[in-house]
Amino acid sequence: MNFVILLVAxxxxxxxxxxxYNPKVLGNAWMAASGMTDEKIKGxxxxxxxxxxxxxxxxxxxxxxxxxxxxxxxxxxxxGDVTNLDYxxxxxxxxxxxxxxxHGVFHGVIGGFALALPILGTNALFERKGFKYIAIxxxxxxxxxxxxGGVICQFSK
Length: 157
Known about the structure:
It is built from 8 helices and no strands. By secondary structure, it is an all-alpha fold.
């Protein structure tokens, strides 16, 4: 597990959010759909919000690691016994299989649709938010998870 890459991947949702929720992109539509106002934004502790957002993104990057790197499943089969000859020979032969940015993006998109969308959608339904709110927020997480998956899969070697 490459911890530096996981920390770099955790920066991706912050960067995507900076663009995604910019008033010139989807920020105004999100504010209208969520009921957010400039007064609410100005009255918040942005350092705490960004700090906790980064912490949550770190947790997400750790959760995405086994989603996008198939070899993690093999590691668990050998119960962490990396001295096992069969594990070593397996990793020699297949350790770099499916370790591309494109493959990571694919699994990130699947994770976004299969995990982020249902969770956000369920919360939004009970909060009485509309389709636009769900689409904006789920789209953000699908894009963020796609890019995180690509970075983790390509560079965690």
